[in-house]
Amino acid sequence: MRVLIDYRPALRERSGVGEYTHELAKALVAASARANGAAPLELTLFSSSWKDRFVPDRDLAGAAAIDRRVPVGVLNFAWHRLGWPPAETLAGAAFDVAHSSHPLLMPSRGAAQVITIHDLDFLSHPERTRAEIRRDYPALVRAHALRADAIVVSSSFTADEVERQLGVARARIAICPAGAPSWPPRAAPPRDGYVLFVGTLEPRKNVGGLLDAYERLISLPRAGAAVRVPDLVIAGRATAAAAPWLDRIGRPPLAGRVRYAGYVEPSERRDLYAGARLLVQPSFEEGFGMTVLEAMSLGVPVVAARRGSLPELVGDAGPLVDPDSPEEMAAAIERIAADEAVAAACATRGLARAAAYTWASTAERVYDTYRQAIARRRQRRGST
Q1: Pairing of strands 302-305, 276-281
Q2: What is the structure's pLDDT at 34?
Q3: Radius of gyration for the alpha carbons in the chain, expressed in angstroms and rounded
Q4: CA distance 32 to 45
Q5: What pLDDT is recorded for position 222?
Q6: Which of 152, 233, 240, 359 is most exposed, with minimal Cβ within 10 Å?
Q7: Which residues is 321 bridged to in the sheet?
Q8: What is the CATH number assigned to the segment(s) 194-354?
């Protein structure tokens, strides 16, 4: 099976989509190496950018790479609006599957076409998006989804949304959640740990709501012996929308209590989580919640929004709060930060939930999805 995956989201400063793309590619390479005589998957990673080059990774050594010097915006416009050029032309090879890492198709002459839809927040709230996502995704996603031979999603929540909002038959939607990182759980929570947020600083992540909750928390009067509220650390790439939040944390009462750590490289991420008392994920919508899974895999307690896929992922491992209620969010943060027994119980349940998510299982599901997509492509060709 010859598979081409659009690797561009993983080229630099990987967000959730980039991390999913990278880890899925690693898992597919590993699964192919374990094929034991079965027909292996021949994976090719497609990269194209004017300035960012594909950097070989030893974990991806079993995959071929195609690196073209075509600006991302130019190629996306041609692919999304013109359906050209086909992947075979750019890669100089033929494929059985062309897998797009985002909701719009990668044009192909003969390959089965697979797209990944992590969420449909851009359709429900286009005002939270920018650039080509605002320009192309809402206008084109339905037509592209209906033409795709298979759609990969990372949660049951997103599967329901794709079926409901785009009218895609459930049989063509494959739930392939992310896997937990292969980090050893931390030995014990740090006594001086911080409250942590990890994610791209964009409107959907509700960073403003988190700052409202934290400001309320540190402003509440406390008895002299009360536990001090931990500092807040915000980590992630800042978008243009982040300017007011970054300005706010430099002024009282947040100045000195909130630190912006910027984008944290994957190699440094475990240490970032390990130093946290708890993680807060206050998003208005998540298609999965990879940072939540990463935190739970280390035994870090989680406070998460009662929205999107987060209840599905967190389950009983931590409090779920209304992201529009700073009061509710602040109360949940304080409870975990102040009560070691509650924090320990959440950490234990989180470890158990995280253990159920593996990249090996994800790779198996995606491989099976590819086989089904190829069969549908052949069936459609036979009926025309």
Answers
A1: parallel
A2: 75
A3: 22
A4: 15
A5: 64
A6: 240
A7: 305
A8: 3.40.50.2000
The Cα–Cα gap between 194 and 278 comes to 7
> At 350, is the pLDDT very low, low, confident or very high (cuts 50, 70, 90)?
very high
**Alpha-carbon gap, residue 266 to 270, rounded angstroms:** 8
The letter for the amino acid at 353 is R
Order of strands across the sheet with 64-68? 64-68, 42-48, 2-6, 97-100, 112-116, 150-153, 173-175
Helix axes 207-219, 326-338, angle to 10 degrees: 60
Instruction: Convert the pLDDT of each residue in 225-261 to its tens digit.
Output: 456 899 999 999 999 999 999 999 999 999 999 999 9
Task: Confirm if 84 and 107 have CB atoms less than 8 A apart.
Answer: yes
| Closest by CA position to 281, among listed 228, 319, 327, 249 | 319
Rounded to whole angstroms, the Cα distance separating 87 from 154 reads: 25
Neighbouring C-beta atoms of residue 72, cutoff 10 Å: 16
Residue 45 to residue 95: CA distance in whole angstroms: 12
List the chain domain ranges.
2-179+358-377, 194-354
CA angle in degrees (0–180, nearest 5) for 93-97-98: 75
DSSP, collapsed to helix, strand or coil, labels residue 162 as helix
Q: Are 39 and 20 in contact (CB under 8 A)?
A: no
Q: Which residue has the tokens 């590993």?
A: 30
Could you tell me if 170 and 134 are in contact, meaning their C-beta atoms sit under 8 angstroms apart?
A: no
Tens digit of each residue's pLDDT (9 = 90 or more) over 40-92: 899 999 999 888 888 878 889 899 999 999 999 899 999 999 999 999 999 99
| CATH code assigned to 2-179+358-377 | 3.40.50.2000
For residues 295 and 31, give the distance between their C-alpha atoms in angstroms, rounded to a whole number. 25
Alpha-carbon distance 194 to 274, whole Å? 10
Name the residue type at position 204: R
Please give the structure tokens belonging to residue 223.
Answer: 């008895």
**Where is 48: in which H helix or E strand?**
strand 42-48
pLDDT given for residue 39 in this prediction: 62
First to last CA, the chain: 24
Minimal CA–CA distance to 280: which of 239, 335, 361?
335
Do the bridges between strand 320-321 and strand 64-68 make them parallel or antiparallel, or are there none, so unpaired?
unpaired
